[in-house]
Structure formats: structure tokens, C-alpha cells
Amino acid sequence: MKVIAAYLLAVLGGNACPSAGDLKDILGSVGAEADDDRIELLLSEVKGKDITELIASGREKLASVPSGGGAVAAAAPTAAGGGGAAPAAEAKKEEKVEEKEESDDDMGFSLFD
Predict the structure, then answer these.
(1) Farthest-apart Cα atoms in the chain, separation
(2) Is residue 57 part of a domain?
(3) Do 96 and 87 touch, CB atoms closer than 8 A?
(4) What is the pLDDT of residue 22?
(5) Quick check: is 113 in a domain?
(6) Fewest CB within a 10 Å sphere: which of 2, 18, 46, 48?
(7) Looking at the predicted structure, is the pLDDT value of residue 92 above 80?
(8) DSSP code for 25
(9) What total of structural domains would you count in the chain?
(10) Position 56 in a domain
(11) Is residue 11 part of a domain?
(12) Cβ pair 42, 6 in contact under 8 A
């Protein structure tokens, strides 16, 4: 990812066709190590291609990926076996325990009994 980020930074900076040296300079400026193999792989994959077309193509591919995040979160409590009421009951128990702890101002030393 850092090599891709360095490439995009170079393109945004006005360098339409960054070289391996350009990417190494960008990565070196933030103290990141430059992996020559990954840089060469990226440069060979994007050679002769327009970055805006590559980004648009990537967005189309990501749009087809299902992202059922909401359904998974809603199903998680029922999969645990207690339904939605169990977490609420646990929260009430925790509140009661916390109230008891707060009422013991002497921290259990019984100095004022």
C-alpha cells in the first residue's frame, strides 16, 4: 500500500509517469523502506495506463463486492443465544454494581464504622 500511496502522491504532485527513484525518494522522505520488487511490479502494472481510468475501474470492481456489514452486526446477538434483551440486562447489573462501589467512600478500611 505504501508503494501505491507514493505513486499516487507523485502523480498528484504533477509527475505523470513517476520512476522507481521518484517513489524511493517519496518513501525515504517519511522513513519508510522501499521494496524494489514491489516498486517494479507496480510500475510494470501501471505502465502506459491513465491513473484516473485505473481508479474508475477499481471503483467499479469494489461496487460489485457485497458489503453486508449491517446484517452481520444485527445477527450477532441472536447468534450468541440470548437475543437483544440479554445485553440490556447485563448493563443494568453492571450499573447496580458500580453504584454500590461508589457508595463505599472509605475504600473498605472501615475507619468510620
Answers:
(1) 84
(2) yes
(3) no
(4) 94
(5) no
(6) 48
(7) no
(8) H
(9) 1
(10) yes
(11) yes
(12) no
Q: What are the distances in angstroms from CA 76 to CA 71, 85, 101?
A: 9, 13, 31
More confident residue, 83 or 62: 62
The domain of 57 spans 1-64
- Report pTM: 0.55
Judge whether 3 and 27 are in contact, CB under 8 Å: yes
CATH of the domain at 51: 1.10.10.1410
State the cell numbers at 101: 462501589
| C-beta separation of 77 from 87 below 8 A | yes
Reported as a pLDDT band with limits 50, 70 and 90, residue 63 is: confident
Q: How far is CA 43 from CA 3, 37, 40, 93, 113, in A?
A: 10, 10, 5, 59, 77
Q: Given this model, what pLDDT does residue 84 score? A: 52
Cell (9 digits) for 71:
446484517
